[in-house]
Design brief:
Blueprint (H helix, E strand, L loop, with lengths): L2 H13 L3 H4 L5 E6 L4 H6 L10 E4 L16 E6 H7 L3 H19 L4 H14 L1
Parallel strand pairs: 1-3
Antiparallel strand pairs: 2-3
Length: 127
């Protein structure tokens, strides 16, 4: 998929978030990269690039105290090639991009992997 089309899917996923979440996306940049770097893989405790679809780097809003300010933006990176490697069709890519964007934004709001896996497991069991 062309990078511009993939980036448009990411923008649409953000636009589809409920307004109360969109309004609270403070001091965060969301970018698209082809592949994770070795450093990003280590940070996420992953050994293979296709295992990392997205990455949140920053200080979650729940851990920002009174002294938080004048800092670089948090960063959410969505990795195009690993998502494409795990998906067969365009609709599957779109769905996965939406899931990854929501997952990484949830980290920005303070949810850890354990809590997210529990929530995602409940969603899947309801389907």
């Amino acid at each position: 998929m062309e990078k511009e089309k993939f980036e448009a899917l990411v923008v649409k996923a953000i636009d589809n978030l409920p307004l109360e979440f969109q309004r609270k996306l403070e001091n965060v940049d969301i970018v698209v990269e082809d592949w994770p770097t070795r450093r990003q893989l280590r940070q996420a405790k992953r050994s293979h690039p296709t295992q990392l679809l997205g990455l949140y780097q920053g200080v979650p809003q729940t851990r920002r105290g009174e002294g938080y300010g004048m800092v670089l933006p948090d960063k959410i990176t969505i990795f195009q090639k690993p998502i494409e490697a795990q998906c067969r069709f365009g609709d599957e890519i779109k769905t996965t991009v939406e899931e990854v964007v929501r997952h990484e934004i949830a980290h920005h709001f303070g949810l850890d992997e354990k809590a997210l896996r529990k929530i995602e497991g409940k969603k899947r069991s309801k389907k």
